[in-house]
Amino acid sequence: MTQHTRSPAEWFFEDFEEGQVFRTQGRTITDADLVTFAGWSWDTNPVHTDAEHSASGRYGEPIAHGALGLSVALGLASRLGIFESCSIALLGIDGWRFEHPIVAGDTVHCAVRITSVRATSSGEAGILDREFVLTNQHGTVVQRGNIGLMVARHPAG
């Protein structure tokens, strides 16, 4: 694997290689995150918003929305800085799985593995296939899936 010495904000298509793994910082999920996400998504299902209802449910406490975990995974990857200057378009989310619940107090981390690197048919940009694995503080995989990204090539010159 090639070692890069440039700052993350200077990465382009040519800097990525199949097999690279990038690990993010942690993010602790709070009760406020669950409430805020429920408010702006309009998903107020009691499994996410009602402690009394959840206490007698499968998990014994409110769980985070699946889409909240996905959003946090994308945000953590964004904080790496390596995709910021070169991103053109998110291409899709494939095979996303919600493997274990996320609850308030969990600290999640994300590993992003580059699974393939290829030029677009025009050759003007590149495609990164990326596997995201979101784990909690116990190392349990809570969510995983693949997220394709179109990225810019290094400017000529």
TrEMBL record:
Pfam families, alphabetized: MaoC_dehydratas
MaoC-like domain residues: 18-119
Domain of life of the source: Bacteria
Ranges in a coiled coil: none
InterPro entries the record matches: HotDog_dom_sf (IPR029069), MaoC-like_dom (IPR002539), MCH/BMMD (IPR052342)
Similarity remark: Belongs to the enoyl-CoA hydratase/isomerase family.
Name of the protein in question: Dehydratase
Lineage of source species: Bacteria, Bacillati, Actinomycetota, Actinomycetes, Micrococcales
